[in-house]
Design goal:
heterodimer, A: mainly alpha, 434 Repressor (Amino-terminal Domain), globular, B: mainly alpha, 4 helices
Chain lengths: 67, 151
């Protein structure tokens, strides 16, 4: 799975650390780290929580353009 | 806060990624127990241990098998990789029969190849029947679940 740079950028835009985002959505920092590295495929429930926290849509953070 | 709440939480304290990792580890442990128990019983058989000495392993192994069989059948699940068809079932039962015949050669006294061969043939037939029955029951359950999901 490819790295999720959009998530990393959106988090940085909000000036949040991985720990801040993790605490806001109720998961561990390791989980956020693995999502950003593309090593964990989150459930739609977690994707929605992340989107709400960062003020983005699912498409903006999790939609991958075809190469 | 109650005293026991200092040590135990009713709420699952893992997040979804940790939960998935935990389930993956537990699944590995389950298969390790399955093959470990089977190997232990096979070794005891080859060493001609009395059946009573492997009763514990046998009971745990059978409980594990029955539990997985019932839960997976109720959920309409078959195997991840093996296709539920006649050819696969024939191949699997043949392999199991051969394995049991080879085991029989070592486990039975005096290299009794007739008993070993009979054990292999009977095992292959039983396994084939069991697999065919399993495929049929799982397909029925799958249809039932599909119907429920439509409603």
């Amino acid at each position: 799975m490819a790295k999720n740079l959009k998530l990393k950028a959106a988090r940085a835009e909000k000036d949040m650390t991985q720990g801040d985002l993790a605490a806001a959505v109720g998961v561990s920092r390791q989980t956020i780290n693995m999502i950003e590295k593309g090593e964990y495929n989150p459930t739609i429930r977690l994707c929605r929580a992340i989107c709400k926290t960062l003020g983005k849509t699912l498409d903006e953070l999790f939609w991958e353009e075809e190469p | 806060m109650k005293l026991w709440e200092r040590f135990y939480s009713k709420r699952n304290m893992m997040d979804e990624m940790q939960e998935q990792t935990q389930l993956h580890i537990e699944s590995g442990g389950c298969w390790l127990a399955f093959w470990g128990l089977l190997a232990a019983m096979a070794v005891q058989g080859i060493l001609h241990c009395p059946p009573a000495s492997m009763a514990g392993e046998w009971v745990v192994f059978m409980v594990l098998c029955v539990y997985m069989l019932v839960r997976e059948t109720r959920s309409g699940l078959w195997d991840r990789h093996l296709k539920p068809n006649l050819g696969t079932n024939l191949l699997l039962s043949l392999l199991t029969g051969v394995a049991m015949a080879v085991f029989g050669l070592f486990a039975f006294d005096y290299w009794n190849w007739v008993s070993a061969l009979l054990t292999g043939v009977v095992t292959a037939l039983l396994v084939f029947g069991g697999l065919q029955l399993g495929v049929w029951v799982v397909s029925l359950r799958r249809k039932e679940l599909d119907k429920e999901e439509k409603q």
